[in-house]
C-alpha cells in the first residue's frame, strides 16, 4: 500500500499543506509585527497630514464640516486628537480629553504625568513621532505631537496592541485551523483519489490480462478526462493486438503447413528416388545380363536366343509401363491433369474395359461376371474413370485364387453410384489396408514382381478419386477382396454430396 499512488499523492498534499501552514506561522512571527507597526505609523501620519490640510484652510476649525472630517478619520484609524491654543484652551478634541490634556501639559511644561515615557521613532522639524508605554496601565501607543502653522499645539495618539501576544494567538489559531483543514482535505482527497485509483487499478489489471493474451476484458469507465482517453487507447490497443496476434497465429499456422508440406515433399522425393531405383534395379540388371549374353554369343540355339530376347523385351515393357504410370501419377498429384466433367454411361465404360482386358483374363482362365445391363449415367472424367476400372480389374486378375471368381457390380443410393470389383482370393491384412494406396507399396513383393506390378496402380486410383472429390476403398470378405469407388449420378452434381 505504501507504493500506491493514492497514498503518495495524499501524503504529498498533506506535506505541502503542513509546510504552507508552518510557513504562514513563521512569516507571521518574523514579518507581521513590522508590517503592523509600519501600518500604524503610516495611519497616525495620515491623520496628522489631514489635520494640517484642514488647519491650513480653517485655523480655528470654525467650519463644522472640518470638525466632522477630523472625527471621521480619527474614528476610522482608531486615533485620539487634541488641539490646544497658546493660552492652553482646547480648540478641538476627539477621544479621552483628560489623558490628552495631561500629555499636552507634559510635553509643553516637561511634566511626567501618569508616568508615561516614550521612545522617539521619528523627529521632523514640524512633528515628532514616538512610541509610548504607560507605566501604570502598560498600555502602548504611538504619539505624534506638533506645533501647527497657526501656533496651536496638537497631540495625536494611536493605541498599539501587544503584538507578540497577538502573533502567538494568531499562530495558535492558524495551527488549529491548519490541522482541521488538513484532516478535512485528507478525507476529501482520499475519497476522490479512491475513485481515480480504482480506474487506474482497473487499467493496470486490463494491461496485465492483455500481457497474458486475454483480450476479452475492456475498459468500461465513464470518465471524460485523461483516464477516459487512456482507457479508450488501451481498448483500441487491445483490439489491434488481438487482430495482429490472430494474423500472426494464422501466418504461423500457414508457415507450419508450408514447412510440413516441404518436409513431406522432401520425404516423398527421397522415397520416390529410393523406390524408383529399387524398381529399376532388377529389370536393368536382367536386360544388361541377357544383352551381354547375346553379345557374347552365349548360345547358338535359336530357342535360347529367342528366350533372351523375350526377357529383354518383357523387362523393357515393365520399365516403360512404370515410367508411364509415374508420369500419370505425377500429373494427377500436382495438378497437371484437368478433370473434364461430363455425363456418360458407366455401364458401357465397364463393358469396354472388360472386353479390352478379356485376353489377359482368358490366359488366366478367369471369367469376369458383370450382369448390369441398364444404362447408368454419372458425372466424371470418362478417361480417368476408365483408368480406375482398368486398374481394379488388372489387380483382380493378378490376385484371383484358384476359384477364378471376379464379379463387377453397380449399386445406386441417393444419387451416388458405387462400382465394386470383387475377386476371390487371399484377404489383405487389416494393418495394410491404409498403406496399399501409397505408391510403390506392395503387400506381397514376391507375387507382385511375378506379374509385373510396381505398386503404382492403386496410387493412381486414389489420386483420380481425390481429384473428383469422391471416395474409394477396399473391403475384406471371407472368400476374397472387394475394391470400390463412387461417382455422382445426379443431373446437377453441385447439389451436394
From TrEMBL:
<keyword id="KW-1133">Transmembrane helix</keyword>
<dbReference type="InterPro" id="IPR036890">
    <property type="entry name" value="HATPase_C_sf"/>
</dbReference>
<dbReference type="Pfam" id="PF00672">
    <property type="entry name" value="HAMP"/>
</dbReference>
<keyword id="KW-0547">Nucleotide-binding</keyword>
<keyword id="KW-0902">Two-component regulatory system</keyword>
<keyword id="KW-0175">Coiled coil</keyword>
<dbReference type="Pfam" id="PF02518">
    <property type="entry name" value="HATPase_c"/>
</dbReference>
<keyword id="KW-0808">Transferase</keyword>
<dbReference type="InterPro" id="IPR003661">
    <property type="entry name" value="HisK_dim/P_dom"/>
</dbReference>
<feature type="transmembrane region" description="Helical">
    <location>
        <begin position="12"/>
        <end position="32"/>
    </location>
</feature>
<keyword id="KW-1003">Cell membrane</keyword>
<keyword id="KW-0418">Kinase</keyword>
<feature type="transmembrane region" description="Helical">
    <location>
        <begin position="173"/>
        <end position="193"/>
    </location>
</feature>
<feature type="coiled-coil region">
    <location>
        <begin position="234"/>
        <end position="265"/>
    </location>
</feature>
<dbReference type="InterPro" id="IPR003594">
    <property type="entry name" value="HATPase_dom"/>
</dbReference>
<dbReference type="Pfam" id="PF00512">
    <property type="entry name" value="HisKA"/>
</dbReference>
<protein>
    <recommendedName>
        <fullName>histidine kinase</fullName>
        <ecNumber>2.7.13.3</ecNumber>
    </recommendedName>
</protein>
<dbReference type="InterPro" id="IPR005467">
    <property type="entry name" value="His_kinase_dom"/>
</dbReference>
<keyword id="KW-0472">Membrane</keyword>
<feature type="domain" description="Histidine kinase">
    <location>
        <begin position="275"/>
        <end position="491"/>
    </location>
</feature>
<dbReference type="InterPro" id="IPR036097">
    <property type="entry name" value="HisK_dim/P_sf"/>
</dbReference>
<keyword id="KW-0067">ATP-binding</keyword>
<keyword id="KW-0597">Phosphoprotein</keyword>
<feature type="domain" description="HAMP">
    <location>
        <begin position="194"/>
        <end position="246"/>
    </location>
</feature>
<dbReference type="InterPro" id="IPR003660">
    <property type="entry name" value="HAMP_dom"/>
</dbReference>
<dbReference type="InterPro" id="IPR050398">
    <property type="entry name" value="HssS/ArlS-like"/>
</dbReference>
<keyword id="KW-0812">Transmembrane</keyword>
